[in-house]
Design a protein that fits this description.
Blueprint: H1 2-27, E1 33-57, E2 62-87, E3 98-120, E4 123-147
Antiparallel strand pairs: 1-2, 2-4, 3-4
Length: about 150
């Protein structure tokens, strides 16, 4: 009887230990997030664009965000851009907020195109959009994503 008790106790202890070790791997699954956005602004050596976006993640999380882009470089123009962004995998939607370093190229006469590659620590974001305006340039700067 004592032997059976200790065998059961050992099995239960091993199961609890296995769950304690395995749980952190499953407790924080990664998810992918995408963003649709609208930005508008102007540039003349200095570029400033502001706008809004909607982020949705594969795990069901969603958020409305504010966007603010400030950069400097060879640039001139004024445009409105609508586009899509794809984030690298994140653990939680809250990881997308903050400042992203940006390298951008944009061009257009009546119809504008915009592409950016951004990074914030381990999180990356690729933006591509189309719109209208008159603009051309290559800039280096930052995009800030904040909750709305």
């Amino acid at each position: 009887m004592k032997t059976r008790f200790f065998q059961t106790l050992a099995c239960v202890s091993m199961a609890v230990l296995f769950n304690m070790i395995a749980m952190p791997a499953f407790a924080d699954p990664m998810t992918s997030c995408t963003m649709t956005y609208k930005l508008s602004g102007w540039s003349f050596v200095y570029k400033q664009y502001d706008g809004v976006g909607h982020v949705s993640c594969r795990n069901g999380q969603r958020a409305q965000v504010g966007l603010s882009s400030k950069s400097i470089g060879f640039t001139i123009g004024k445009s409105e851009i609508e586009g899509t962004g794809v984030f690298s995998d994140v653990r939680n939607l809250n990881e997308i907020y903050g400042h992203y370093a940006a390298l951008e190229g944009h061009a257009g006469v009546t119809k504008s195109v915009d592409g950016q590659v951004l990074t914030s620590g381990e999180i990356s974001l690729a933006l591509s959009g189309k719109g209208r305006g008159i603009d051309i340039g290559v800039t280096l700067g930052a995009l800030t994503i904040s909750p709305r």
